Every structure is written in C-alpha cells, then in structure tokens.
Structures
1.
Amino acid sequence: MTMPVWIKHAAQLATLASENEGPRTKADMSDLGIIENGSVWLEDGVIKAVGTTKELEQRFSARAKVAEMIDASGLLVTPGLVDPHTHVVYGGSREKEFEMRLEGTSYMEIMNAGGGIHATNRMTREATEEELIEQTTRRLNSFLSHGVTTVEGKSGYGMDLETELKQLRVMKKLQQTHPIDLVPTFMGAHAVPPEYKGREDKFVDLLIEEMLPVVAGEKLAEFNDVFCEKGVFTPEQSKRILEAGKHYGLIPKIHADEIEPYGGAELAAEIGAISAEHLLKASEEGVRAMAKSGTIACLLPATALFLREKAANGRFMIDEGVAVAISTDANPGSSPTTSMPLVMNLACILMRMTPAEALTAATYNAACAINRQECVGSLEVGKQADVVLWDVKNYQELQYLFGVNHMKSVWKNGVQVVRADG
Ligand SMILES: N=CN[C@@H](CCC(=O)O)C(=O)O
Ligand SMILES: [Zn+2]
C-alpha cells in the first residue's frame, strides 16, 4: 500500500470538472472548474477528494500525518494530459524526407514515390518486436515528461497481418509495463501497400475479411481508423472498412480532409465516427454535420506546422458547436513531436483557440475522443490519480510562455513518475 498524497496550495487547480456529461462544446470548453489555493488528495491510485486547501484541511486533519505532502504553492495543477491520436509504434525515422520537403517535394509526392508511410512500413516490417518496444518506450518516456499520461496509438505501419499484429502486441505489452495508459487503434487502412498497387479493392477485401476478424478476435484494438484521402482510400472504401469494423465492435475514426477536401468530415458524421482527425480542408457543411452528429474534431496543429500548411479552422469548429480535441499526431513523417504542451500552444496561435479551450481539448475532450472520459481527463473523485504540476501560476501562462516544457512533476495512478530537475 502506498502512502496517500496530498497536493495542496495550488495557485490554480484546473479540475475540468463539470455537471454536464459528454464532450464539451462552445462555452463549456472554457469552463475549467478552477479552484484557487486548491488541493487534491490521491489514495489507492485514485482521486479521493478535490477542493480548496481549507476544505481538505478540515476533512483530512486526522489523517494529514499519514500523507505525503506536496506543496504546490505558485503552481498550476491539471489532470494528466491525454493524447488521442498517435502513430507511436514505428521503426526507423525519416529526417531525410524532412529535408526533401523543405527543398520543395510535397508530402504526397514523397509517399507516391514509395517513401513516406511506405518507407516507415518497410522499416517497421523489418524491426523486431524487441526493437519496437525499445524505440516506443523512449517516445512514451518523452510523452510522460511532457505531462501526458494517456496515449492512443495506431497500427498501420504494417499493412500485412503479421506486422499489424506485431505493432498492436507491442502496445499491449507496453500497456502492462509502461506507466502511460495506451489505447490501441487498428489502422491497417493507412495506405495501400505496394504489392496491392492497382488492386486497391482487393486490399480492402483483405482488411475486411482477414485482418479485422483476427484483430477483433484477439481484442487487440478498440478503434478502427482509415486514411480517407485522394490517392489513398476513397470515401466508399473507407465506409466499407469502417462499417465492417463496427460489425466487430471497433469504434470508427477517420483521417479526414487532411490534404484535399474529400468529404471525410461528412462521412465521419454519416457513419457516427467517434472522431474525425486532421480536417485542415474540411468543408463548412462537413463541420456542421459533425456538430449535429456529435463527432469530435481531433485537430493536429503540429502536423500543419510541420507540413507548412494552414492549420484546421478550430475557431470556426468550436463556434459551430463541434467538440474539439487536440493531439500531437506523433509519427515519423508529418509530426515527430511528443509535446502536447507545444500542441496546446499551437492550438492557440494557429487555430485561435483560447488558452482555456486548448486545455479542455488536451484533457477532457481528448479523453472523450478515445472513450476514456469515465476514468481520465479531469480531476474528479473516483477517477485515476493522474495529475500534473506545472511551473506556471495559471493556465493562461501555460499557453503564453510557448514552446517551453513547464512540467514540474507527473503523478500516474497516485505515484510520482517524473520530476523536473531542480
Ligand atoms: N496522414 C496520415 N497518417 C499520419 C502520417 C503518417 C506518416 O507520414 O508516417 C498522420 O496522421 O499525419
Ligand atoms: Zn494520424
């Protein structure tokens, strides 16, 4: 049994607690449930109490001696950040392509010439499970040191059953050994592998008839994702794959309208996807359809920045009533970062989201995008004791002092797992 932990005197405790259930929209995205001079009591891996320091002093005076006291004076305290969209398990890296893009070759040109996702596909096929575990562990450690305690991860650098299963099994193993909670998504439909060039529908058949049943049968994934993009999977193929996934109990997600407008937002709304990703080129009608269907927009401003593209119109989406989540998209090609704090900063700078909206998008709404809102994403009694202390005095400063990691310490299931030096 570990000692209870009492984090007290926080300059601001952003609880993200709310009476309303479900993903936050419009003005609710700005309600952070702030408590000044706040306290949170962690015990047995969960949150036992949240309130002002005065309230907790009254309630726990008899037990104060048995708790480890953490003085959070002058600090901001938030829930552990949630990253709802990553491709964290992959072999190799693609820094040469970064140079090529800066010299003028486009992301899709590189991919169509056999690089991009195909290059990582080859390197991931070649990597052993042990190598993937070692590389992914390093990335997860970096996430943790940026205050991220829950990470969604996709397969999709295999595109054959063996490698897709290898990626998903790596996630399953890391879920048991790494402090971060990993939430697995099957994304066999990330690209059409070269051996199926010209026979794309045959690859869709393979995904539906051979891969999905095994992935679902072994319970290796909760979500099913598709790269619905011109030159990758059409809306019709995407719909087939996602409907088939639903049949196996996998919840649909869609990489939609990233490079070109392609009806991805509309499709996400039509099939009831839990979230649609990217949306840089989503149509206004598509955004409105998502607001109606309750599909969460998972926006990836670091990807837009890294690809030197205009970011998605997060401001418009929130104003239209779409619940917005944000994510790193951590992957070797279009966004190699593991910094959710940077992503929050970019949400403000590039998408005109407010500092409060950015924090909601990186915590509670991000948890909703991966169906984890019952256990993470806010500081509420009974939830996992995933808490971050930030070396800033309020949530505005967290977004304003941009590009810096303000993490002071990270608590996962009530245990301190990272602490900044000094
Ligand atoms: N756009 C498709 N998939 C990833 C990129 C993967 C890669 O380039 O390796 C994304 O979400 O950005
Ligand atoms: Zn992605």
2.
Amino acid sequence: MTKTLAELRAAIDAVDRELLAALNHRAALANEVGDLKRAEGTPVFRPEREAAVINGLQNANPGPLKENNVANIWREIMSACRALEAPQRVAFLGPAGTFSEQAAVQFFGSSIERVPCISIDEVFRATAAGTAQFGVVPVENSTEGVVARSLDLFLNTPLHIVGETSLLVRHNLLRQANSLKDIEAVLAHPQALAQCQGWLNAHLPDVERRAVSSNAEGARLASTNPAWAGIASDRAATEFGLHIAAHAIQDDAFNRTRFAVVCLPQTLNAPEASGKDCVSLIVSVPNRPGAVHDILVPLKKHGVSMTRFESRPARSGQWEYYFYIDLQGHPSQPQVTAALEDLRGLCAFYKVLGTYPLGE
Ligand SMILES: O=C(O)C(=O)C[C@]1(C(=O)O)C=C[C@@H](O)C=C1
C-alpha cells in the first residue's frame, strides 16, 4: 500500500533526527581530532583526507543520491567540522559575490571566515602576511587563457599551491532596469569584458566598456547609476538588488575558470597523496636550440603525463621565458620523483609551486 504524504514526511522527520544525532557525533569526533592537532601543532585542514573521505563515500554510494550530491553534502559537513576545530580564514578577490568567492566556498565549504581583497596582489599579500590562512586565486580561463597576474605573482611568492577547483562561469548583464535600453557604460573586470565581447559587439556595439577591479565592483557601481550595467554572477545580482537584463552572455557556453588554493608552507605542507594528484612547477631553460624539447624528455622517459604547459616572458629583454608545467602524480611515486630530479638538472630556474589533489 502506498504511503500518504503525512506518513512519508513523518518518516523523513525520523531520518532527519537520526542524521542530526549522527552529524553531532561526527562533529564531536572532529573536535577531539582538533584537540589532538592542537597538541601536536599539526594543520587543521587536510585536503587529501577530505578528498579521500569524499572518494570513499562516492564509491560506496548505493544511490539514489548522485555522486556530485554526495560530494557537495560531505564538503559542507567537513567544512562545519573543520570550523569547529579552528575557523579557517580564506582570502579571495572581493567584494562579496565574485566568482573567486564562489570558488572559495566550492573548495572549503561555506563554514569559513571570508577575507575579501581588492586585487589578486592583495590576496597573495594577505595570505603571506597571515591575515588569511589560505588564498584563492584565478589561474586560467577556458576562453581567455591564463590569468597573467596570478602566474607572475607565483614566481616570487613564499606561498605554495595546496589545492585547485574550477567553476563554470556564467556571466549576466546586470542593471537597475530590466532592459538593454539607455545603457551608457558596461563596467566589469577586463577578463569578463573579453569573455563577453561577441555578445557586447552584437547587442551593445556603441556602449563604452569600462574595466574595473572586479565584476562584483562593476555590479556595485551599476547599483549606483541607472545608466551603468555590470557583468557578473547571479549571486551578485541578488547581492546588489539588480535585474538580470540578459542571461549567460559569455561567448563560450562552457566557459570555466580554474582557481588555485595557496598558503604558506607552515600553514599546510604539501598534502599527502590522494590517488589523483598534480605537481605544479615553474622552470626556465637556457636560451639555446632544443632546450624546450629537452625538458619533455624526462617526462617521457619516466612515463609521467603533463597536463599543462604555459609560457610567460621572463622580462629580461632577452626573449627568455618561464614555463608553467603541471604533471600528473605525486612525489611519493618514484617515477614522479625521478622525472622531477632529471628535469631539475636541465633547468636554469626550477621552482615547485605545489603538490595537491586534482580538483573538480
Ligand atoms: O581527519 C581529520 O584530520 C579531521 O580534522 C577531520 C576532518 C573531517 O571532518 O572529516 C575535518 C578537517 C580536515 O580537513 C579533514 C577531515
């Protein structure tokens, strides 16, 4: 016999009470872990452990919950447990409502102390100074390529990468009126203006495009002037009380941005192997024929896959370059260590930016 709505809801209420008791039991255990870590002086945030918890539960999941539901639910549970151990302060390019904030919450869950910063430089500075324990910075966009400022700052920073996450970036045109009429200027971060240029050329060809420090700042400014529009997320529309005058105006429907999570090595040393890991490094090679080819040889020899290879000018005026390389694997695997050692021997400059679990 099928159950009535009242009966089903009563059953859900009973399950929720069991969940609440189980979650509080879990939180109490995390509190004990926190006491242990404080006594040992070891880091609270352990991304490889969190990745292993989520992978384990996804593998054990009988359904009907989907794998990504399991990941989202446990990310929030672990965020809350972690905050009980010690609240983690996370810096990102602000103000509230930016994609960087969204990336921070996607990675750490919502139980964090948010430290919005006025620029990417400031995120690095705040994290290096200890104002925040972690920083979240954009590194690459699927339409526009690398975020040059972040890559350049990696070169000299004492921070290292301990994680990554990527977001589907959907840009909307936000303004006080729900129409495209009488717009004098569109204000957004230069990356967003570039990612929407096809739409802007087609729909607002004669309107001024003004670069501002972040999309959320553009949205904030649009809320102060009816003739201005911003390009930003749905969240920014809610945050600043604006209409979405046009939805999803980015030229590439699958526009994604990848973010790196950075911290001082004393906050968190290189995470242990999670099974799906990545090593990021910056190298430069002597300016001679075949030098770039040579750096690929150790990778082939030791069977290590390269998932990323970017170049940035070394600013020496000599047409020299830094290469940003991502390798798959973890230094605990002998073939990865052997490839890194061989590579180091070939490079004029060699810096490991971090070893971390692969993100979503
Ligand atoms: O296992 C730990 O080290 C914990 O602190 C517990 C826990 C969790 O809630 O499962 C919380 C924070 C860490 O980042 C990893 C996992």
